[in-house]
Design a protein that fits this description.
- This is Mobile element protein.
- This protein is α/β, with parallel strands linked by helices and about 260 residues long.
- It has one domain: Ribonuclease H-like superfamily/Ribonuclease H (Nucleotidyltransferase, domain 5), CATH 3.30.420.10.
- Helix content is about 35%, strand content about 20%.
- The chain is built from 7 helices and 7 strands.
- The strands form 2 sheets. The protein has a 5-stranded mixed sheet with strand order 5-4-3-6-7, with helices on both faces. A two-stranded antiparallel ribbon has the order 1-2.
- Helix 2 packs antiparallel against helix 7.
- About 20% of the residues are buried.
């Protein structure tokens, strides 16, 4: 209970001075894996150009790989209305569902080049075709080592996926992010850009239109590739985990 009444203007001033906006929120998930640092550290080392304490060579490549699932083709039931002065473009709200495609992508961390393909489904075989596409593409044909950073999706999960990739090509080193750590995967940033700049609003009438739009995005991106300026390193990770430790313990102790 407050001992005295506080005016709205006083509350507003206090919040403003403290730069606090309690009406805003974002979803967050604290790491619950006690081996989070052990699993995330090697990925951050790769982004910094090192592996097992040694600098990467000129023919070592780091590719961030993932699937963007279920990109729908939506045939709008009315033609769109183009933008006018003081009037935004208008997209018909009702649409027909004309199927969906899966977009599999490999992002070169150091060059910013993107390789991708569309598939009807995700899974081990579609992901394998993306891997084959990478292996056939210069400069990866002549690579010494190929580090593939992936999440824990079913297409490339666990130790069996590591063995499977090694059988495919002994130069491949499959590196998994910790669970609930997709933010460590560069290709997720690219997929976010793709969603905001290319797939929103979704006005592709059919699957071929989806394919064309994705292919054009790749071609335009690769004309002037720009790698992400990633600054978060292993030391930053340890500091972050130290700050999060009280929350980590609270989450571990919580029932359920």
């Amino acid at each position: 209970m407050l001992s005295r009444k506080i005016s709205r203007s006083t509350v507003w001033r206090m919040l403003h001075e403290s730069a606090i906006k309690p009406w805003q929120h974002e979803s967050w998930l604290f790491p619950r894996d006690p081996l989070f640092a052990e699993k995330a550290g090697p990925i951050l080392d790769l982004y910094a150009g090192h592996w097992d304490g040694q600098p990467l060579g000129p023919k070592d490549f780091v590719l961030s790989m993932d699937e963007k699932t279920s990109i729908p083709a939506r045939g709008r039931k009315h033609e769109e209305m183009p933008p006018e002065p003081h009037q935004p473009r208008r997209i018909e709200a009702e649409y027909d569902r004309n199927g969906a495609l899966q977009y599999l992508a490999a992002w070169d961390v150091r060059s910013g080049m993107i390789l991708g393909r569309c598939e009807r489904t995700t899974g081990i075989q579609p992901f394998g075709r993306l891997v084959d596409q990478v292996l056939a593409q210069p400069p990866y044909v002549d690579a010494t080592r190929l580090f593939f950073v992936v999440d824990n999706g079913s297409s490339h999960r666990g130790r069996t996926s590591v063995v499977r990739m090694q059988k495919r090509d002994t130069r491949i080193v499959l590196v998994h992010t910790p669970i609930h750590a997709r933010w460590l995967n560069h290709v997720e940033i690219d997929c976010s850009i793709l969603q905001r700049k290319v797939l929103t609003p979704n006005d592709c009438a059919n699957l071929e239109a989806v394919r064309v739009r994705l292919r054009l995005y790749e071609e335009l991106s690769n004309r002037t590739p720009k790698p992400f300026n990633w600054k978060f390193n292993r030391q930053d990770l340890l500091k972050w985990l130290k700050r999060a430790a009280p929350h980590f313990l609270a989450a571990s102790a919580a029932p359920g």
